[in-house]
Amino acid sequence: MAAVVVxxxxxxxxxxxxxxxxxxxxxxxxxxxxxxxxxxxxVVVTSGAIAxxxxxxxxxxxxxxxxxxxxxxxxxxxxxxxxxxxxxxxxGVQSAQVLLTFFDMSARTHYLNARHTLQTLLRWRVVPxxxxxxxxxxxxxxxxDNDFLAAQVxxxxxxxxxxxxxxxxxxxxxxxxxxxxxxxxxxxxxxEELERYDIGLSGSPLGSGGMRSKVxxxxxxxxxxxxxxxxxxxxxGAVTRALAGEPSGTRFRPQTGRVSSFKLWLKYAKPSQGRxxxxxxxxxxxxxxxxxxxxxxxxxxEGEFEAGxxxxxxxDGRAVGKGIVNYSASELRRIKGLxxxxxxxxxxxxxxxxxxxxxxxxx
Length: 363
What we know:
This protein is an alpha/beta fold. It is built from 13 helices and 13 strands. An 8-stranded mixed beta sheet has the order 3-4-2-1-5-7-8-6, sandwiched between helices. A 5-stranded mixed beta sheet has the order 10-9-11-12-13, sandwiched between helices.
């Protein structure tokens, strides 16, 4: 038995006019049901609520203002989920609607609650159909076209595979619509390999993601040891092969030296509230010896934050990593550059570390 997360982009769910692509969703729900009946745990992450709302409200173009986007999502979300529910029910599969926000992923207690809920649904043999709760999100805290959300869900449940479905055959060396010579990249061992390629932004009038967000999602999931496939959701047989782990589209190999789910959450989901600038000695200790960051290594404090917030750590303009800080910004400004004994003279109950190594992840 395997656990699979399959994500459908807006271009798969709806056409450019916002009309649900019924034949495609029927085929995809058939694949999901087949995997479910074979004993696998399947989670569906879907985009398309805004597109569906646009069609219902007969909006000619995608809204720009946040309130109109949220209103379109409110109109479309229930109708979109009902499509999935009816198609899966017709195939003997029970489904459940789950709406998540960026806050649900960034706040640790909410993150764990989401994990417990999804684990329970899967134990009950229910297929969760997940979307971002667009009606309460903002520009600053959103998942893009749900690629980030799909990667987080895959990490959350410890999936065996993440499949990102799009309207192209996979990831190309350049935009095939502009570059006829662009070639399909069939396999990626390390995400760094892709730096030499022109990975464009979204070309769909309905979506908000693009190939770049899919690559970031693949980087996240493979760091957790989860193989990722970017494949066509419209090409016959492509989804079947992708869900089975067979060659299809672009495959990303899982990375060695698996990173803990906590540190992946810290790196990708918990937003930074400020910045610590450290000296070169502290940078070397963090990078080479995996030590904690002490106040003596901090040379500057930027922004306002409280103890328990995430902060970015930098040195000479370079990103070093990200960690959960043990002091507020005002406290750190008082003790930066001080050795432990001197710190305790200023703050008698101070902890030794500004950022403990267990709560720090390298960039």
